């Protein structure tokens, strides 16, 4: 968000917690809109707000998350449903709400934040992998369907990113979250991902970086993570 605002974009910052959005807006000049993407009413209101201001050039579908690390045998159906609801259906709702305007723009862009989990299985990951794989296939399908409308569809697939809440939400405690990154010299940061998002959206519109896989060097693959002194 900061990276896009810094390169001249007018950014609408969307999340559920209004107080955090207000602080971000204060810092960056972004337009805050509190909305839950799992609520159709919220998404309709969000689209109404943005379109009333004159439309948009790009949509970044970033909201998502993981809950639980249970095996398929023991996985919570509620956790799986929650992951599908936000990563797949939430992304679907927001994309549907803005596609007519993006087509009308003549040079629209949609950027999806999926994950390396979308195409690599790991023990305990099935619920999140399935949700991200669903989002990933929606992304590839969307690219095929929207090319004739000149809507560019970009997918960014990060590996290990150390963000404030992702692993805590998934594992339930700060302590468990810290272990995910223990000894890893330099996990990716939110800023790293934001730089790649801004880079891909700032390229001339006819260039579509259609799938970008980004990992820290220490994570050579999902199952090969270099940890020092951990
Ligand atoms: N961290 C990683 O290792 C990693 C790796 C690969 C891909 N990803 C993906 O990258 C994206 C961002 O992850 P992150 O690490 O930045 O996670 P995060 O720290 O948990 O941030 C998630 C963001 O999405 C918002 N959000 C969550 N649910 C929402 C909802 N229902 N409606 C509206 N906004 C919602 C949150 O704000 P509110 O809670 O205020 O709504 C927050 O701003 C996700 O799609 C995630 O799956 C993360």
Automatic annotation (TrEMBL):
Question: Which molecular function GO terms apply here?
Answer: oxidoreductase activity
Q: Which gene encodes it?
A: sdh
Cite the entry's keywords alphabetically. Answer: Oxidoreductase
| Family the UniProt entry places it in | Belongs to the short-chain dehydrogenases/reductases (SDR) family.
Top-level taxon in the UniProt lineage: Bacteria
What is this protein's record name? Serine 3-dehydrogenase
Determine if Lipid biosynthesis is one of this entry's keywords.
no
PANTHER family in UniProt: ALCOHOL DEHYDROGENASE
Which InterPro entries does this UniProt record tie to the protein?
A: NAD(P)-bd_dom_sf, SDR_fam
């Amino acid at each position: 968000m900061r990276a896009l605002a810094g390169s001249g974009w007018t950014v609408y910052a969307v999340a559920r917690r209004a107080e955090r959005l207000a602080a971000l807006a204060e810092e960056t000049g972004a337009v805050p809109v509190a909305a839950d993407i799992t609520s159709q009413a919220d998404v309709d209101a969000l689209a109404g707000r943005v379109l009333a201001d004159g439309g948009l050039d790009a949509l970044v579908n970033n909201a998502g998350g993981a809950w639980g690390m249970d095996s398929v045998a023991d996985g919570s159906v509620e956790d799986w449903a929650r992951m599908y609801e936000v990563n797949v259906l939430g992304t679907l709702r927001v994309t549907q709400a803005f596609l007519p305007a993006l087509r009308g723009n003549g040079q629209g862009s949609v950027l999806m934040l999926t994950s390396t989990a979308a195409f690599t299985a790991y023990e305990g990951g099935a619920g999140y992998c399935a949700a991200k794989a669903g989002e990933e296939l929606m992304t590839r399908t969307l690219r095929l369907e929207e090319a004739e409308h000149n809507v560019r569809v970009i997918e960014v697939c990060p590996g290990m990113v150390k963000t404030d809440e992702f692993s805590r939400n998934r594992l339930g405690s700060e302590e468990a979250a810290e272990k995910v990154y223990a000894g890893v010299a330099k996990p990716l940061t939110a800023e790293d991902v934001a730089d790649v998002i801004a880079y891909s959206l700032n390229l001339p519109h006819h260039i579509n970086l259609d799938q970008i896989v980004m990992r820290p060097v220490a994570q050579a693959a999902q199952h090969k993570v270099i940890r020092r002194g951990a």
